[in-house]
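S1.2 Input.
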Amino acid sequence: MSLLIKYLALCFFRNNPADLIPTKSFIWKTVAFYLISGIIVEGLIADPADGTIEVSLRTIMAFSSVATLLLVIKRWQNFNQLFTAIFVCENLIMTLATITEALYFLMVIKHVENSEEISIAIGVVLVIWYISIISYILRQLFEFKMGKSVVMAISYFVLTYGIPMLFMDI
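S1.3 Output.
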């Protein structure tokens, strides 16, 4: 539990992922939660089979992106630290996205006038927060400059969400 709290602090721009060493058990639980929560969220948006495929593609793209970055900058030893930090924070964002979807559903049932706009606004905030977290993790772990870390975080977001989404539209 202590390790989870330390990793969650990254989502609030505290701690340094370089100081956090995940155990194998923690890594696998993080990946499992990522897959399960992603499948639930995508299953609520689309059909469960498509959602499962999209989340699987996202996972492959996430691992591939992290691996490629680390190979290019010759820091392979940071693989577990980087992907665990990203996945824990992404799991938090995914949990909040699931709550947002439930809130949207309740607002629709209650006939809240601006329910769609509220839901979209929360989604935009979550995406901006997500990109900020990834940028923070990259800056802390690799001491990248702010601009470089933001560009890489946006690139990571596009690779892990955009490409699987495009693939699913084909």
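S1.4 Remarks. Residues 23-169 form one domain.
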